[in-house]
Amino acid sequence: MDDTMVVALFRHGITEDNKRRVYLGWSDSSICKTEEQRISPYPNRFDHYYTSDLQRCIQTSHLLFPRVVPTLVPEFRELNFGDWERCTYEGLKGDMHYQRWLNNFEMTAPPNGEHLADFRSRIQVGWHKCMQQSTGNRIAIITHGGVIRSLLAEFAPEPKDFWDWKIPYGAGYELRFTKEHLRRGEKCISLQEVPSTEKGRGSQKRINY
């Protein structure tokens, strides 16, 4: 019996709001039309498929796994930016509250938005829900950049700051655990970049620890 579990974390495709570099949390936004040509079906099969319930993730899931109906997991939404939703740095840079958040985002929350500690707790609820429901050895999760960064900060063997993880749109990472490590909430045993999903491009890079 295989004693390992693979969890693949995919970031959604880019949206017009992403291109404008706005804070896009719980606001719904469709992916760009160009993503329909750029993102190819992912060749590997999984036993279970989960996605954030926001449209940009659902659309990306359909591009990556066109024959699959994923399970929607609201806990895998991006951070709620509250009053700063769809605002830009240029529009907010004169706000002292915003400057305090930039300088210490772990201790400060956007007005009417979500504190980072609550964000991480919410993600953990979704993570444990998926782990308890899944009976196979391979899981795919389509979600947001902040969610992936939070999970990598917790489970990746290589310590990095939250913002140091670079996750391209439509790509991500595969984490491989022993089932015992996963049960105990310990670090994964290997980390592999999900290859670029652009047609005809990309290769896998495995990072073992």
From TrEMBL:
State one Pfam family annotation: His_Phos_1
Task: List the InterPro entries.
Answer: His_Pase_superF_clade-1 (IPR013078), His_PPase_superfam (IPR029033), PGM_Phosphatase (IPR050275)
CDD domains found in the cross-reference section: HP_PGM_like
For this entry, the protein name equals Histidine phosphatase family protein
Q: What is the source species?
A: Pseudalkalibacillus berkeleyi
Phylogenetic placement of the source organism: Bacteria, Bacillati, Bacillota, Bacilli, Bacillales
